Automatic annotation (TrEMBL):
Keywords: DNA damage, DNA repair, Magnesium, Metal-binding, Nucleotidyltransferase, Transferase. It is an enzyme of class 2 (transferase). It catalyses: DNA(n) + a 2'-deoxyribonucleoside 5'-triphosphate = DNA(n+1) + diphosphate. It comes from the Bacteria. Belongs to the DNA polymerase type-Y family. Residues 9-200 form the UmuC domain. GO terms for molecular function: damaged DNA binding; DNA-directed DNA polymerase activity; metal ion binding. PANTHER family: DNA POLYMERASE KAPPA, DNA REPAIR POLYMERASE UMUC / TRANSFERASE FAMILY MEMBER. Its cofactor is Mg(2+). This is DNA-directed DNA polymerase. Its EC number is 2.7.7.7. CDD domains: PolY.
Length: 424
């Protein structure tokens, strides 16, 4: 396994991306504390993203609105505009591509690049050119923090460490951190254990049980020891990444398609939540078909006043709306049976799971509805073609009633980059 002796990777993270895009799009918001919320007209939700000015006053992402207003009385609440963020993401990638080729867009606000010879020689100049391209051609409200290191994992940690250092200096973002192999591991050892990607809260507790309480202690472990703690090869991969080796994680296989949504106050009944869940699952099914998969099951998750409700329903390895929505209907029948007097539902999630690539589909030998299923699939193909032609939902299975505030299926996503089709 190769261990680079110079920096080879760049990791870029846009600072307060969603709020800064709002500021760039609306000059009235510039320089003011901004909080992005799921929908307007209610304080019974949370700030899901905030600007650097809001963060400087103590506002945090996923902070209840009432608490955010206490720490920042002049906070301006802006309803989310996910399609704007998608378009901004695409525009920003185009500008960065004029300076350096992008290897992977890790999320809507993070990306990584492989350095060429000039980038390895002068990373400061490369970072300055990227930031200048964004400032000159997109706008100065959208800033980014950049980390350089021998591999992608270390570059990501360096990027986060640079951003944290900017906070300690009294600013936020627009940071730069260069971790050359010759300087390692000292910069890494100053990072808190829980700040290392791959060490979440549950894994940190497992490390504590194994006598590992700090990053220096983690760094001192042997690769096989880390594999035992993680109970899989990811622990060993992390060891090699932290020690500067050029290691690439294997490509992740698609495991499910789903959507979730915080419900508007007037949709928090079983009837209201059901209508929104149908819309969300239809959009998930469209993504399923676009990527050529079939699903063997659907699950429904509800956040309710007294906790949560969760149910699964098996499907006959399908991808058409009729079969998928029939499965969802069966799940809601169970909800109605469990709550005959109704229940307040705050959030819903719908997911298609047990996926099969279209060229590997296997149905039950005793399933007699294959001919009917093929008819529904042909009908769905025609519907998808019409919607694609007009770039809108003009035909749907049943009534199409988008919820108040819109964006169902196209909400803010930190892990997935939405496509234009998500907003139809």
């Amino acid at each position: 396994m190769r261990k680079p002796d110079e920096i080879e990777r760049l990791y870029l993270d846009f600072d307060g991306f969603f709020a800064s895009v709002e500021q760039q799009a609306d000059r009235r918001l510039r320089g003011r504390p901004v909080g992005v919320v799921p929908f307007s007209g209610t304080d019974r939700t949370a700030v899901i993203a905030c600007s650097k000015e809001a963060k400087a006053q103590g506002v945090k992402n996923v902070m209840p609105i009432a608490e955010a207003r206490r720490v920042c009385p002049d906070l301006i609440l802006v309803p989310q505009n996910p399609d704007l963020y998608r378009r901004a993401h695409n525009a920003l990638l185009c500008e960065i591509e004029t300076v350096i080729a992008i290897d992977t867009a890790k999320s809507i606000d993070e990306l990584t690049c492989v350095l060429d010879d000039s980038g390895r020689r002068d990373p400061e100049l490369l970072a300055a050119r990227i930031k200048a391209a964004i400032a000159d051609n997109i706008g100065r409200c959208i800033t980014s923090s950049i980390g350089f290191a021998a591999n992608r994992q270390l570059a990501k940690i360096a990027c986060k460490a640079g951003k944290d250092e900017s906070k300690r200096r009294g600013s936020y973002g627009d940071a730069l951190a260069i971790w050359r192999p010759a300087d390692m591991p000292e910069p890494l050892l100053r990072v808190e254990l829980e700040e290392i990607p791959g060490v979440g809260s549950s894994m940190a507790k497992r490390l504590y049980r194994n006598g590992v309480y700090s990053t220096p202690q983690l760094y001192a472990l042997q690769p096989k020891h880390m594999r035992r703690i993680w109970n899989n090869v990811n622990g060993e991969r992390l060891w090699y990444a932290l020690h500067g080796y050029d290691i690439q994680a294997p490509e992740q296989k698609r495991g499910m398609f789903g959507h979730g949504k915080v419900l508007p106050p007037d949709s928090r009944t079983i009837a209201g939540a059901y209508e929104i869940s149908r819309l969300l699952l239809t959009k998930a099914a469209r993504r399923l078909r676009r990527e050529s998969y079939y699903a063997g099951g659907v699950w429904l998750w509800l956040s309710i006043r007294d906790g949560t409700w969760f149910g699964k329903h098996r499907l006959a390895v399908v991808h058409d709306d009729q079969a998928i929505l029939a499965g969802l209907h069966a799940l809601w029948q169970r909800v109605r049976k469990d709550y005959p007097r109704g229940v307040t539902i705050f959030r819903i999630g719908v997911t298609l799971y047990d996926l099969s690539p279209s060229n590997e589909r296997q149905i039950d030998l005793l399933d007699n509805d294959d001919a009917l299923r093929r008819k529904w699939e042909k009908a769905n193909s025609a519907v998808d073609a019409l919607n694609t032609r007009y770039s809108a939902t003009i035909v749907s299975m049943g009534e199409w009633k988008p919820p108040a505030g819109g964006h169902a299926g196209g909400k803010i996503s930190y892990t997935r980059i939405p496509s234009a089709e998500d907003f139809w």
